[in-house]
Amino acid sequence: MTATASTIRLTAAQAITRYLLNQYIEIDGIETRICGGGFGIFGHGNVPCLGEALYPHIDTMPLYRGQNEQSMGFAAAAYAKYHLRRRFMFCTASAGPGTANLLTAAALAHANRLPMLMLCGDTFLTRLPDPVLQQLEHFGNPTLGVNDAFKAVTRFWDRITHPAQVIQSLPAALATMLDPADCGPAFLGLPQDVQGWVYDYPESFFARRVHRIRRQTPDMREITDAAASLAGAKRPVIIAGGGVQYSGAVSELTAFAEAHGIPVLETIAGRANMLATHPLNIGPIGVTGSDSANAIAEQADVVLAVGTRLQDFTTGSWTAFAGDARLIGLNVGRHDAMKHLSLPVVGDAKLALTALGEALGDYLAPDSWTRSAQDERHKWDDYVADNVAPGNRPNSYAQAIGVVNALCDPRDRVVTAAGGLPAEVTANWRTLDVGTVDVEFGFSCMGYEIAGGWGARIAQAEAEADQDTIVFVGDGSYLLMNSDIYSSVLTGKKLIILVLDNGGFAVINKLQNNTGQDSFNNLIADCPTVPEPFTVDFEAHARSMGADAVTVANPAELGAAFTRAKASDKTTVIVMQVDPYEGWTTGGHAWWEVGTPQVSDNANVRAKHAEIEATRAKQRQGV
C-alpha cells in the first residue's frame, strides 16, 4: 500500500473492508459499529482478494465460517432481526454455486425487509480466461450470470466493474439497508480480478461516520383524516405488526391503546409487541391466530394497521374483516400504507402514533366493545391452557410449547419457522417479555430455525445477554438444514434446540387431507418410493456434531431435559416424537385461500373445493 497526503492506494476488496470498519450507528446514545462482522465460506472467487482484505481485521470484524451459504444468510437475517434492523452482517460466497446458495436467504431477507450485505464473487471482468470454472455461459449475452438472479431478491444490486465504483456503490447499499421504508438485502457482485485491482481512494471516504435511522414525520393532513375516521368508530381495533418493534414504538403503541381503550391484535411478526397479560392484548390475528382476535376483527368497523404489510396469513386472505370496515394503514412504507384502499398515514410508527393520539383527543372506544374483546381473550386463554396441558393424549407441538413457556426465562428468545410450528407457537406461546419471539413466516422458509437461532445467539452474546436462544424445529426442517448445530458448538454460541419429530412434513399432509386428498409423499410412511420407512436417530446425529442430546418420551421428560439444558453452557438438542394427526391446535384459524382443483375424479376433492369456494363471498376486493 502506498499513500499520498489525501489518498490511499487500496484494492477494491481492501477499500470495502476499511469502509465497513468505519461506519457506526447511534443506538440509545451509544455508538456501535453497524456491521457486526460476517459469515463466510471461501472459494477461488473470494479468498485471494477479499479474504486477504479481511484477515488483518479478524479481531474487530469477526468472520464466522458457515457450513452452507444459505444458512449463513439465515443467520445474518436473524442477527439483523434481533438488532431491530439497526445492525447487519455481511455474507461472502465464492463465484458460482456458493453464491447461488444465498438466493433463498436473500429472498427471506427481502420478504421480511431485513438488512443483509452480500459480497459475492463474480466472473472475470476482462473475460480473458473465459469460460472459467463455475461460470454459466449465455451465448447471446456474455454479461449475464448467476449473480443477476439476485436482482429479484434484493433492494440494492450492483456489479463492481472498477474499484472507483466502491465510492458510490457501498454508501448507497448501506443507505438502503438503513432506510426504514426500503430496508432489505444489498448485493455487490465482485469480479475476481476487480477485487484485487487498486485505486487511489480519498482518505475522507474512510473517515469515521455515525449514522442514525431516519424517522419520517407523518403528514398532518393524513393524521387528521385518520383521527376523524377513528373518532367515529364504535368498534375499533389495532393490528400491530413487526414494524412497531423496528420503530421502537412499543411504548407508544401501548400508551395509544390504553388512552383510547382500543383492543390490540398482533400479527406473526408483531407477536411480542405486548405481554400476554396486558388487558388490551386480544391475541394473534389471522390464519394461524386466535379465536379471540379473529372474532373481534370480523366485527370491527375501523381497523388501524400499524407497521404491518398485511400478508394473507394476517388478513385471512382478506376475509378477516367486514366488507365495510374502514382500514387505516400507518406505515413508514407507502406501498404498505395504501394496501386494499387503506386510508394512508405514511410515517414512522413512533412519531405517527403520538401525533394520532394527540389528534384523537379524549376519544375512548365504547366500554362494551373493549369488554367484549377482553371476554373473547379470556375464553381463548382457557382454550390455550387446556391445549398445552399434558394429559391422556398423544404428544403434540402445543404441549412442548407449553412446557418450555412455563420453564423459560422471560427474556429467552424463541425462534421457529415454516411447517406447523409457526402456527402452533403463534397460537399457544404466551409472551413473557417484549421482542422475544422470532417466527419467520414472511417467506415461510424451512431451514431457518437452527441457522436463525445461531445468528440470534451471536447477537445476544454481543448484547451480553445471559438469556438463552430456544429453537423449535420439526424433523422436516431439521433434515433440510441442521449443520449450524455444529456451528453453534464450534463458536461457543449455545442453543437449546427442540426437535419435534412427526414423521415428515405433517402440516402439509394435514393441508392435503383438509383439501380432500389422500396422504401422499409428505409423511415418510406415505411416500410410495420408500419401501421400508424408519425414524432418524436425531439424538445420535446431534451428538455427532458436538452437541449434548437426549430423546424424551413425553412432556414431563421434556421439562426435566429442558431444565438441564438451561443449566448447561453447551448446545443441547432435545428430541420428542409428536403425533402427526392428533394434537394440532384446532382453534384460531381464519379462512385461507389455497388453489384447489375445479375438476377431479375424487369426490372428496370436489366437495372440499365447493366448501372452500363457498367462503369466498367474504373476501374483500381491493388492490
UniProtKB/TrEMBL annotation:
Ranges for domain Thiamine pyrophosphate enzyme TPP-binding: 440-575
Catalytic activity, EC: 3.7.1.22
Molecular function via GO: 3D-(3,5/4)-trihydroxycyclohexane-1,2-dione hydrolase activity
Keywords in alphabetical order: Hydrolase, Thiamine pyrophosphate
Listed CDD domains: TPP_PYR_POX_like
NCBIfam families named among the record's database cross-references: myo_inos_iolD
This protein's name: 3D-(3,5/4)-trihydroxycyclohexane-1,2-dione acylhydrolase (Decyclizing)
